[in-house]
């Protein structure tokens, strides 16, 4: 290993539509390991988002404002290109259940091929967040349920207001969707 010290930068990518307490936990834990964490609001072509990338960035900035080494950005391109450009050496993702694994494994392999200089690192979710997903939050909120245990307090009203104006056909719950 070179004696030259390089900042250890991690990218924490996701749809974050919206950011949940589960995401915040993973971001906090990544921030405790890496010198700098870039939370990347990225485009998942299989999902139709409820919040614009700018709104998602804003919500994540609000809930991570106490973390000095966390930045939030958005990109419409390949994650691997962003990782290279940012000088990151790790992609950090949360892993909830076996149902997440196949999809995450596939993405990790593709990203390793596209960006060999970065490793994908999985942080295992806390047991209390095992079942938590952005799509579940959207569905509970849409039907008037209480989302307060699932998303950070500072953004609850924004999420509830948006959900009350939506049609249920915009909201799905699938095993790997978050
Ligand atoms: O929170 P999600 O929806 O599971 O996150 C998936 C995401 C956004 C990280 C993934 O779809 C992604 O990396 N999109 C950017 C485009 C890209 O690089 N696709 C190839 C991934 S192998």
Please describe what this structure looks like.
By secondary structure, the chain is α/β, with parallel strands linked by helices. Helix content is 38%, strand content 17%. It has six helices and five strands, in the order βαβαβαβαβαα. Strands 3-2-1-4-5 form a five-stranded parallel beta sheet, with helices on both faces. Helix 5 crosses helix 6 (156-164). It is globular, with a radius of gyration of 16 Å.
Blueprint (SSEs and pairs):
Layout: E1 9-14, H1 21-33, E2 36-42, H2 53-63, E3 70-75, H3 79-86, E4 90-95, H4 98-114, E5 119-124, H5 134-142, H6 156-164
Parallel strand pairs: 1-2, 1-4, 2-3, 4-5
The structure holds 4'-phosphopantetheine.
4'-phosphopantetheine (PNS) is lined by residues 13-15, 42-44, 47, 78-80, 107, 110-111, 178.
Mean pLDDT over the full residue set = 90
Structure classification: alpha/beta
Q: Taking Cα atoms only, what radius of gyration do you get, to the nearest Å?
A: 16 Å
Distance between the termini: 37 Å
- Secondary structure: number of strands: 5
Low-confidence stretches: 173-178
Give the neighbour order of strands across the main sheet: 3-2-1-4-5
């Amino acid at each position: 290993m070179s004696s030259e010290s390089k900042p250890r930068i991690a990218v924490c990518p996701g749809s974050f539509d919206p950011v949940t307490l589960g995401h915040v936990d993973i971001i906090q834990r990544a921030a405790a390991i890496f010198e700098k964490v870039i939370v990347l609001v990225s485009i998942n072509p299989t999902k139709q988002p409820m919040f614009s990338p700018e709104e998602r960035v804003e919500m994540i900035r609000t809930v991570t404002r106490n973390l000095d080494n966390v930045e939030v950005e958005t990109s419409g391109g390949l994650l691997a290109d962003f990782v290279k450009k940012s000088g990151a050496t790790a992609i950090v993702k949360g892993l909830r259940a076996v149902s997440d694994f196949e999809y995450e494994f596939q993405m990790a392999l593709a990203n390793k091929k596209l960006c060999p200089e970065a490793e994908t690192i999985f942080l295992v979710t806390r047991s209390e967040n095992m079942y938590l997903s952005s799509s579940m939050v959207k569905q509970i909120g849409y039907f008037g349920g209480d989302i307060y245990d699932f998303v950070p307090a500072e953004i609850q009203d924004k999420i509830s207001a948006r959900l009350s104006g939506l049609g249920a056909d915009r909201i799905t719950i699938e095993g790997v969707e978050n």
